[in-house]
Amino acid sequence: MTTFAGLRLLLVGPVPPPAGGMANQTRQLRELLQQAGADVALLPTNAAYRPAWVGRVPVLRALFRLAGYLVALWLHVGRVQVVHVMANSGWSWHLFAAPALWVAWLRRVPVVVNHRGGEAGEFLARSAGLVRLSMRRAARLVVPSGFLEAVFRGHAMPSDVVPNIIDTQRFRPAEAGEPRPAQQLLVARNLEPIYGNDLALQAFALVRSHHPQARLVIAGSGPLETALHDQARALGVADAVQFTGRLDREPMAALLRASTVSINPTRVDNMPNSVLEAMASGVPVVSTAVGGVPFIVRDAETALLVPAEDPRALADAVCRLLNDPGAARAMAERARADVQRYTWAQVAPQWAAVYRQALQRTPGRALTEPLE
User: Which of 29, 112, 115, 193 is the most exposed place for a label (fewest CB within 10 A)?
Assistant: First the structure.
């Protein structure tokens, strides 16, 4: 694919380690753009602290990271045609996205802001004025779902929707002979309050009363790890719950192929990769109907959606799938067909159009070979 031949791009965002939704998307987008002919420089927003002890001092570590980031940003921006910022809400916006917009504006290089935070609504309710001030320097605002498009439109910031990208060669259904334990349930979210792992444990305790052979795997890391271990013991299910820690792409894909149902119990969400990866892997999904999730799945057709904060509803939906494997397989097959719209072949032309439009915002900066 030569769609991006001649494009010099700076990609700003988090990268693994640790592996996570935005970090994985940053890494994957860079790989795909490079394979398609672009010259992609990477500026990580989660680079290791040097010296390491700085990372243990809260205020000092922010100042160290910001200072190094600004110097690297100024140098990188002067060498590229477009800056692509993987943006999030809260302090991440103020420390990384906003400075990138202002530095690029000073150097007359167009910026594509790719906002991905599921908490954008709450963030903009507090900070829309400051965000708009910086966004006036952006060439394009891009979001991955209709949910975020509506959130930003409500604050007078129009955006384009370009979805997340799923690698359907890596995330694929299990083949004949691959191990797939019966009734293995999976939650692939970080161990933070917004992702509802506590709700998944409550639901799992209810599921076990009907399916005593069921097991739960929680793949993620975060500040609630000790509390969740304690909760599993208090619920009497610790012997059937495995905490794997956060997994990179290959082990996560293998874990999905070995799972029966993927559970997304989150309280806040945008376009969760964990849901898309389960769909691509042929694993039926049960999810809370929050944020952007109803924009990417259809209830009872490509996933089962339940209200947030309702462990009983989560458990009932999981049992519905475990009780009817034929219906679960049919739903998973529909989901797998639906997720093909998130492959690189479908998404690449959308990014090409965004970059082309961004370049048109800055006279005198053209590709050596026009985008197709």
Answer: 193
First and final CA of the chain: distance in angstroms? 10
My answer on whether 322 and 349 are in the same domain is no
User: Is-contact 244 255, C-beta < 8 A?
Assistant: yes
Secondary element (H or E) of residue 69 = helix 58-77
What is Dmax (Cα atoms) for the chain? 67
Which domain, by its residues, includes 106? 8-165+343-360
Q: Is residue 171 a contact partner of residue 336, using CB atoms and an 8 Å limit?
A: no
251 and 321 both lie in a single domain = yes
Q: Helices (DSSP H) in 265-371: which residue ranges? A: 273-280, 293-296, 311-323, 325-338, 344-360
Return the SS3 of 88: coil
Rounded (10°) CA dihedral 314, 315, 317, 320: 170
pLDDT tens track for 264-306: 999 999 899 999 999 999 999 999 999 999 999 999 999 999 9
- Per the CB < 8 A criterion, the answer to whether 258 and 231 are in contact is no
The crossing angle, in degrees rounded to 10, of helices 120-135 and 146-153 is: 60
For the CA atoms of 133, 10, 353, 121, what is the dihedral angle to 10 degrees? -40
pTM for the complete prediction? Answer: 0.90
Chain position carrying tokens 């799938």:
321
**Is the distance from CB of 265 to CB of 196 less than 8 angstroms?**
yes
Where are any strands of DSSP class E within 178-253?
184-187, 215-218, 241-243
The total number of structural domains that make up the chain: 2
Name which of 33, 310, 309, 344 is nearest 193 in CA terms: 309
Pair 351, 306 in one domain: no
Nearest 5 degrees, angle CA 74-CA 75-CA 78? 85
Cβ(219)–Cβ(191) under 8 Å?
A: no
- Give 93-128 pLDDT, tens digit per residue: 999 999 999 999 999 999 999 999 888 999 999 999
